[in-house]
Fold:
Amino acid sequence: MTRHATTPIPGQKPGTSGLRKKTPVFSAPGYLENFVQATFDALGGVTGKTLVLGGDGRYFGDTATQIILKMAAANGAARVIVGQGAWLSTPAASHLIRLRGADGGLILSASHNPGGPEEDFGVKYNMGNGGPAPEAVTEAIYARTQVIDFYLKLEAPDVDLGALGDQHLGDMVVEVVDPVADYADLMETLFDFPALKAMFAGGFRMRMDSMNAITGPYAVEILEKRLGAAPGTVVHATPLPDFGGMHPDPNPTWAHELMAEMMGANAPDFGAASDGDGDRNMILGAGCYVSPSDSLAVLAANAHLAPGYAGGLKGVARSMPTSAAVDRVAAAMGIEAHETPTGWKFFGNLLDAGRCTICGEESFGTGSDHVREKDGLWAVLLWLNILAATGKSVAELLADHWATYGRNYYSRHDYDALPVDQANALMGDLRARLGDLPGAEVNGMTIRAADDFAYHDPIDASVSKSQGLRIIFADDSRIVLRLSGTGTEGATLRVYLERYVAGPEGLAEDPQQALAPMIAAVEALAGVAARTGRSGPDVIT
Ligand code: VG1
Ligand code: CO
Structure:
């Protein structure tokens, strides 16, 4: 029997990046099946189509892979290309979709959320361009989950996901591929591997913390095997179903082992970490933390030093809460700078239309038009390429960048697991007052503009409303408040803070000090501490 009756399950609404739930929810009977069938249905079926499938190795990924393969076969798909062991990093999946001309792909990951039987799982659909499904598609999927009454799933033994090559599942071909090779080959086309090899051979020291997540095998292959970095350069290199208990979110709080090493005595020259599914990166130098917004700006300013970008950039794009540091680079270069809502799906149209080459988000995500996802190792390699080409340290590059463009002091304060009603009320009350704020003074600073960010896509004219509350001051300093769309517990409030200092004085302050006036303004305007009773943020990046 391949046709199984089912009933709609509430709450299957994809968020910023696919559907994410606690693993017990996702693995309950019918939950994954309903969502996958709704996805296939919303796409107009998958008959005769080729799909890519893989994930970050987290708990339930292998079981989910077998279920999805049987569903794809019952739905008439022609071929599914799967990473060996059901492994594919998000950028590698994006590349494979494009390389193989597949119709789309399913990525099994909850990204930077912890994994395990009691932690998080997720599923995301990517389109034929390799990028996350746009809102129109995720809305169609959600609509379908609300009326679904059956799903199709073949009765068949499990596929051997360890064996490379073609196997048959009914009439469908399951092609198991090396998850790393094609991606590593792509990196070789973009970066000066001989120069990087020479740098490592010359004693350059690096630490890459893969946080027991999916970048381990990719980083070992590229950094240690192809570039000759010392064995052991990559730590926590084996993807584990529960990430060995690590929270694979590459920020100073969760990648604290790496932070301690890079801030300590005899630190390596360069440090990096990535997240569960390999699309994020944190960049560090010896004694030096690079804020993601600054990383984006430095990469944009120097990308031409890497062979893949020697012809220059077509434009840049950043998510709205990301600092405007990259805008200053774009202005100096005379190229377009786009401002999109949070989430990589909004960059796809711009990349496809050739309107931007490099994109980034303040949440440790940077990438380019080589794929349609953010890409952690890509950012690491571009940084390495820039270090090799300039001979400068990370700290020198940052100082030079600020001296040239000024510094956008930046920080994000996260308040996790707030009661949903409380978070909604906080946002709702502030939203209701936005119209009265322009012209008002807070802590002696005048508010120039305040709005609820709406994005008008210049390519397909779609409009995405309510993407974050922005309060902009007379000197262009900003505070932004929005609720996370990737959490699985209560509500996460993100407060984004930015202040520009032109220099030459005042470029080397501690960001929390430099942003103190903005932090006070948030409290005065939104009463985060007063309303939540929290003494401070859970995570500061
Ligand atoms: C977060 C980040 C956002 C990122 C998204 C997916 O979303 O803020 O910039 O694109 O995660 O990243 P939110 O809605 O929680 O703020 V990942 O690495 O989870 O695919
Ligand atoms: Co991720």
Q: What stands out?
A: The chain has three domains: 2-179, 183-405, 408-540. DSSP finds 18 helices and 27 strands in the chain. The longest strand covers residues 407-418.
